[in-house]
Amino acid sequence: MASFVKIAVSPQNFGRYKTLTPKAYKLARTAAKKLRGKKVLHINSTAAGGGVAELLKSQVPLEQSLGIKSRWFTINPPAYFFKITKKMHNLLQGKLSDSLSAKEKSAYLGTVKKMLPDFRKLIDSFKPNLVIIHDPQPLPLIEALTAKKPSSILRIHIELSAPNPTAMEFLRPLIQKFNTVIFTNKIYKPLWLAAKKAKFVMPAIDPFSQKNKKMPLTEAESILALYNINIDKPVVSQISRFDPWKNPMGVINAYYIAKKSIPDLQLVLVGVMEAADDPEAKGLFKKVKKHAEGDPDIFLFSKKSDLLGVPNAIFINALQTANDLVIQKSIREGFGLTVTEAMWKGKAVVGGKTEGIMLQIKNNKNGVLVSSPEEAAEKLIKLIKDRKLRGRLGKVARKTVKKKFLMSRLVLDHLKLYTLSI
Ligand code: UDP
């Protein structure tokens, strides 16, 4: 089995940002001039499902459009590897009551070690100027990059504000081998990492993608009608992998409380991507299903077939467009692209008070922040009952995304870093 899979991306034209974000467009064009023909190799663990794949799908072709020879490969490990890395992900996001066993550590390192010969071949044939490793799964590939060239960047997308110290200590020697480490948030930087190595880039969304481009409300409503979601009654949704940090059980609890005040409230929970690197989702979904049992106003989407042939991106767009309110009740969140996506559609978002969501939502200005199911229920009731307030928050939310969280800004941030690294 090949250790790496090349991911083909659909071409995109950076010129599309000329009128939408003129400043970022101009600056990126200028920065790209010096980088023409340079080669950047992105490596992550999955081509679909979750935020990293979502970002790379747009970032890689936009870099190409600017004259950089960017390529995207995923690693291709056996399934047990992702069980270990999901555990590691949970530890890094702050799970304290667990640890990696010696066997798990050696399986993790051993699996990536087996990829090193293929990785060296890839480097020899593509000859990148810069390699960007995304997240901890492929992180030990750094062992093959100890020479001065190519330059190496680790891009950590996860929430690292209070990691389990044992997991962090385990990864520390590997992380320190990178030339640069990009975090989403300043407070995610571990104290031991030299300040000059740390850089900060916030994620962004692609406003032209099927998921985010403007969908007429009537079209969105007709898509929801396929699943018998009644658009004449209030609809709240959370779109997220079934993951404990996304707290779907808390969302259902909040919904049950709110339902007492708004009896016709409907809740839609979506987590259909089944990302290959997230084997934990199935177990949690069983619990979610049980908790939702007997309530005909809770709609669950956990697998592709539940979408009745509608492509995932179109379904998500329809739901974020036609629902009344979006909830993202995460307990830990590195950033939360689902929040950005909903804000871009002018929706008020009830977000869990987490570091990543606080980068986007300023409480009561462009959304609201909550810390418990009870508080979430209180805000759901308030916002469902007050259409004007929802509209006001949503309008500011869209402006926030235009200003700070579109792909042109993310590409510009990366080009600046590439200039420093290459
Ligand atoms: N997503 C999707 N379908 C789903 C669930 C999630 O397309 O059923 C997408 C979602 O729209 C977003 C990404 O997956 O673009 C999730 O990114 P986020 O940063 O919110 O969370 P992560 O999964 O990376 O923790």
From TrEMBL:
<feature type="domain" description="Glycosyl transferase family 1">
    <location>
        <begin position="228"/>
        <end position="399"/>
    </location>
</feature>
<dbReference type="InterPro" id="IPR052078">
    <property type="entry name" value="Trehalose_Metab_GTase"/>
</dbReference>
<dbReference type="Pfam" id="PF21269">
    <property type="entry name" value="TreT_GT1"/>
</dbReference>
<protein>
    <submittedName>
        <fullName>Glycosyl transferase, group 1</fullName>
    </submittedName>
</protein>
<keyword id="KW-0808">Transferase</keyword>
<dbReference type="InterPro" id="IPR001296">
    <property type="entry name" value="Glyco_trans_1"/>
</dbReference>
<comment type="similarity">
    <text>Belongs to the glycosyltransferase group 1 family. Glycosyltransferase 4 subfamily.</text>
</comment>
<keyword id="KW-0119">Carbohydrate metabolism</keyword>
<keyword id="KW-0313">Glucose metabolism</keyword>
<comment type="subunit">
    <text>Homodimer.</text>
</comment>
<keyword id="KW-0328">Glycosyltransferase</keyword>
<feature type="domain" description="Trehalose synthase N-terminal">
    <location>
        <begin position="42"/>
        <end position="188"/>
    </location>
</feature>
<dbReference type="GO" id="GO:0006006">
    <property type="term" value="P:glucose metabolic process"/>
</dbReference>
<dbReference type="GO" id="GO:0016757">
    <property type="term" value="F:glycosyltransferase activity"/>
</dbReference>
<dbReference type="InterPro" id="IPR049438">
    <property type="entry name" value="TreT_GT1"/>
</dbReference>
<dbReference type="Pfam" id="PF00534">
    <property type="entry name" value="Glycos_transf_1"/>
</dbReference>
